[in-house]
Amino acid sequence: MSVVGLLFLLMGAMAVGSALLVVTTARLVHSALWLVVTLGALAGCYLLLGAEFVAWVQILIYVGAVVVLLLFALMLTRAPTGVQTGLTTGNRVVAAATAGVVGLVLVTVVVAGFGGARVSVDEESVGSATSMGDAIFRHWVLPFEVLSVLLLAALVGAIVLSRGRASSGEETP
Amino acid sequence: MSPMTALPVLSETASAVAPAQAGGVYSLLWLVVALPAVSAAILLLGGRSTNAWGHLLGCAAPIASFALGVLMFVSLLTRDAHDRAIEQHLFDWITTGSYDVDAGLLLDPLSMLFVLLITGVGSIIHVYSIGYMAEDPRRRRFFGQLNLFVAAMLLLVLGSDYLVLFVGWEGVGLASYLLIGFWQHKHSAATAAKKAFVVNRVGDMGMALAVMLMFATFGTTSFVGVSAAAEGASTATLTALGLLLLLGACGKSAQVPLQSWLLDAMEGPTPVSALIHAATMVTAGVYLVTRSNFIFNEAPTAQTAVVIVGLVTALWGAIIGCAKDDIKKALAGSTMSQIGYMHLAAGLGPIGYAFAIFHLLTHGFFKANLFLGAGSVMHSMNDEVDMRRYGGLAPLMPITFLTFAMGYLAIIGFPLFSGFWSKDLILEAAFAENLVVGFGALLGAGITAFYMTRVMLMTFLSPKRWADDVHPHESPRVMTVPLLVLAALSAVGGVLYLGGWVVDWLTPVVGEEHPELGVPVWVISLAAVAVVAAGVAVAWVLVAKRDVPREAPVRVSVFTTAARADLFGDALNEAVFMRPGQHLTRSLVYVDNRGVDGTVNGLGGLIGGASGRLRRLQTGFVRSYALTMVAGAFVVVVALLAANLS
Amino acid sequence: MIAVHGSVLAQEIEIESPNIAYSAIYPILIVFGVALVGVLVEAFAPRPRRYVVQTVLAAAGLGLAFVGTVLVAGDLPETQNGLARGGIEAEGALAVDGPTLFIWGAILLLSFFSVLLFAERRLESGVTAFAGQAAALPGTEAEREASTRGLEHTEVFPLMLFAVGGMMLFPASNDLLTMFVALEVLSFPLYLLCGLARRRRLLSQEAAVKYFLLGAFASGFFLYGIALVYGYAGTVTLAGIDGAITNRVGGDGLLLAGIGLMAVGLLFKIGAAPFHAWTPDVYQGAPTAVTGFMAACTKVAAFGALLRVFYVAFGGAQWNWMPMMWIVAALTMGVGCVLTLTQTDVKRMLAYSSIAHAGFLLTGFVGVQAATRDSDDMTSLVAVMFYLLAYGFTTLGAFAVVTVVRDSSGEATHLSRWAGLGKQSPVLAGVFALFMLAFLGLPATSGFMAKWAVFTSAWAGDAQLLVIIAVLASVITAFVYIRVIVLMFFADPVGEGPTVAMPSVLTVVTIAAGVVVTVALGVAPQPVLDLAHQAGEFVR
């Protein structure tokens, strides 16, 4: 097994292990921090596969933005930060089974979808900024642009639902 | 106007019509339908400003249509027998490649007779209504709806395509619904209207499926196309078509098993009962069967079904008629029964079609006459309908009495009156076909004589039983003149059969076949007269020889009870359709709202849910909805996999 | 140095600009563009002017997009031996073909009239029917203040335009990814709009949350289905999936599971059983104008997408999915019809009726009657598209009528409050009766022609049993609609009875449009049938 292969295995194990901790730890903040590790390990996997662009995007957006947002949310609301009992409900077996089945099916899909196709990691390929840019801004440009419309709509919605007294005081904008 | 072409109906010679003959009158065919339709639109949408002259316009429209109809009839008479089918194309209704529906009208001997009946009797009843509805503040609306009915009925009989016919079919249903419920303030009227509409929908379902089946197998729904295609079609298809059409006919014509609505429909104003529920709309089923003769002729099973339905209804209605104290309901039972006779005749095939239509015409005269007479009586008796509160009216209302008597003699088949001829012909055809059917029909004639004599005696001849505050009087002239006209028609309607005219007239449409009897014709006639005489005699003994109590006796035989309850028609409907339906609904609602919840969350969830529901006026939980979805998705996927991978 | 480096980069990566045929897709761009302008108006225009500016902008934008759609339809090239017209545009993301344009036209027309309903102000004495301040909790001082100051959310107009854009994109998507994005774009603003009622706000907010949660759930199914189909075909383009299905013989678990899960997502949007549970609650809770908009437009868009996916991508596997769709159609009609019977609230009744109509539409869909070279019979596509247009206008009109029947607490939606409406306002009751008769399928109304079209196409497509079930179901629904008519005309009003508020010309125009289309499509359906027929098949 090559060094890359060994590292990949390691990263993978790390991702799975920390993901388990995310859902089993008794402190919400810890859970969020374990999520950082999971996502980071995933980024490592991407990097090892030669998808450097995707890897950095993963770090920037998921670790840098999403989890931080999560932590902010935990801090700004009055969510308890201490040890919580009763976070794990009686449905855990069902939930685990569901997650397992979903994972299994997805693995099947990936295996079936790509079959025996092999991609050399040494060559610059699917995950690079070039190919990603090419795909997003040429082939998928319309859905991409429409997604920005979706985000705008969500933004407008969020403002409508949340803007309260702050604006009600003003007479004209 | 649109170009006209002649239409070959079961005849090859009628390929073209000389334009010189066709030009003038027939190009106005669309006006026959349009006049009442426009008048209805004006009256219904015009508002109060039309109140003053609304009833006059309402009468003028059918009279004008009748005048046009007479012109065309005269013109048709001058044409060759096989040349009497005129089609008028109005516009392309649906065009999708190989399947086209033209909105077109077809005038042939069959529809001609109907046009005359509808506009003729319709006009008389319109005029009568001026007097009958004089004090009703909503008289203008009444005339509007009556015009709407006439227009729809004319479209029904003039349509050249089953789909156009269906439009008229639903149109008369709607008009009938509106008019039954015309007196909205009466709860019973609203209920009756709803019942009529819903029961009719069952029949309409048969119609809709029949039309769909025609389209699917023949690729056309026009009369010409279907009649041409029917020759090569399989018996199974034709039988299915015939049975479906019969279902439609049963709904509209109140035949067993869809008879239950007609008695309740008497809640409508009496002119409505006379026009729609006696003379015209309820006979649409007979028209349908006769019009579809090219289907029924090739489908003996369906024909047998028609005969059975007709015979059963003929007796069923007659028995109900014997027990009713409400004069209109007694007459309604009689209507069912008479239409049963028509179906019976139509089910016999070419031997009976013309007789069915002949009886339909005479029945249109005498039954309209009887209903209007009953209306005249009610009018003078403060809208009392219970015959036990009548009696001795003959000297007080001489014209009503005499005209009613004409109708009475016609319906029981008194020799030389119109009903005598038409019923006699049906009996002949029935005996020629099957002895059981023949004797059944004969028995029906006897019962008819019994209950009509009972009506006659209880209303006009027996000692007076009305309260002191009732002052019976003869009706105004605007009501009695129509009665006189109809009475004359009831008496002499038999002239249509003079020299076999009506049969010859209809032959190009329905074909011809003469009944072959083992006995001379006069034997049947004599037997019929004897049975009728017996019925009258029994009525005389049972009604005239005793006092008629003012209140209906409670202790009566099982048979009377059954007949009073419409032979348990409603109870049957309730047991067979309504209760299972209600159970199904309840259980579905239960599953939809609570079942899922209950199984998942147990009793606690149910109680919590119930209080939550009360608080928020909301029925469901998101989680149970989501669970339904998961279950649904699971079933969908598993079913897909199981069905395809096994 | 930097300049040199830049030029090297430019040499290495040759950026090909995407090939977008703006001349074919500009109706969508107009709608999105106007929505963006609307957001800007929200930011910069003074509050008192916003209402007028937004209303005019939205109506004009939709009108313009409709004109654009007509112009685009004018010069569609013929393909596939003349069976279809149009082409694949925007780098394969959109299929701009006859059916797409027909559906666009229908959506734009219906949403134009929905805008008029949205803009109705007279019924709430000078403000729209949307919450004055959504952030204010129900029943608080802030809410009262917002209402006394006459605040209103004019953001509803751009939000609605976003939804319309998504609805146009949804049936036009030529690959599953675009379709998923479109699904989200159309759903998201609707979730929000549902929660913005001015009256009965708790009910409205609950409806919004329910719709959001269940909608997200359904989207999850849809996405999972896409993943499975991708696993099977190795591509997400519809033509690619079709190719994969035709080349591989026999059923494949992955494909079937994918079809099933994608069907769940689509059937949810349509409101077909057993994925219908959200419909009554959401229809009841949402502001009535939004309900009308959803009932009319969402159904059109979702059916368009369903038709495209199942006819174009999964057409080769139709024998695999047809039995499932049969059962779903029958179940939907059964549930819709039977449960309509027991409703006591007008909006819930219309919701269940929309479920029943979804079943009728599915009946037409299951027929799978495709066009062929030598015959031009009624195809399933023509029938379903005609039905959608007819039903859309009738249901929009019916909901518009619901907005004007009011009592002191807002709309009087409980059916008992409708008793005696015929005496109060014969014209309005007559109009509602007409809509009921159209739902019922009485001849000479659009409902009859629509039912006739789907039933005949289904019958010709060997779905006779389903047609019989459908006819039976429509007999059952007769009870309901007749009950409403009897109630309005033959029953005495309870208590004071409802009052019919006089709406402004906006609502009147919408109701009138409903009446005109309902009658016109019943009496002379031919032009619209021709139009649907000319649209041809989907391009592949």
How would you characterize this protein structure?
- The complex is a heterotrimer of chains A (173), B (646) and C (540).
- Chain A starts with a helix and ends in a 5-residue tail after the last helix.
- Helices cover 74% and strands 0% of the residues of chain A.
- Chain A is mainly alpha-helical and 173 residues long.
- Chain A has a domain at 1-82: Four Helix Bundle (Hemerythrin (Met), subunit A) (Up-down Bundle).
- Chain A is built from 7 helices and no strands.
- The model of chain A is unreliable at 166-173 (pLDDT under 50).
- The radius of gyration of chain B is 27 Å and the shape is globular.
- The N and C termini of chain B lie far apart (64 Å).
- With 540 residues, chain C is mostly helical.
- Chain C contains 21 helices and 6 strands.
- The chains are: A mainly alpha (173), B mainly alpha (646), C mainly alpha (540).
- Chains in contact: A-C, B-C.
- At the A-C interface, helix 4, helix 5 and helix 6 of A face helix 2, helix 5, helix 6, helix 7 and helix 8 of C.
Key phrases:
heterotrimer, B: 646 residues, mainly alpha, three-stranded antiparallel sheet, 3 strands, 71% helix, 4% strand, globular, C: 540 residues, 21 helices, 6 strands
Summary of the model, kept short:
Chain B has 646 residues and is mainly alpha-helical.
Total strands of chain B: the figure is 3
**Shape field of chain B:** globular
**Major beta sheet summary of chain C:** 3 strands, antiparallel
Assign the structural class of chain B, choosing from mainly alpha, mainly beta, alpha/beta, alpha+beta, or little secondary structure: mainly alpha
Give the overall silhouette of chain C.
globular
- Share of helix among residues of chain C? over 70%
The run of helices and strands of chain C is HHHEEEHHHHHHHHHHHHEEHHHHEHH
Largest interface chains and counts: B-C, 65 and 79 residues
Structural class based on helices, strands and sheet pairing of chain C = mainly alpha
Radius of gyration of chain C: 23 Å
Order of helices and strands of chain B: EHHHEEHHHHHHHHHHHHHHHHHHHHHH
Task: Give, in spatial order, the strands making up the sheet with the most strands of chain C.
Answer: 1-2-3
Could you tell me the strand content of chain B as a percent range?
Answer: under 5%
Oligomeric organization of the protein chains: heterotrimer
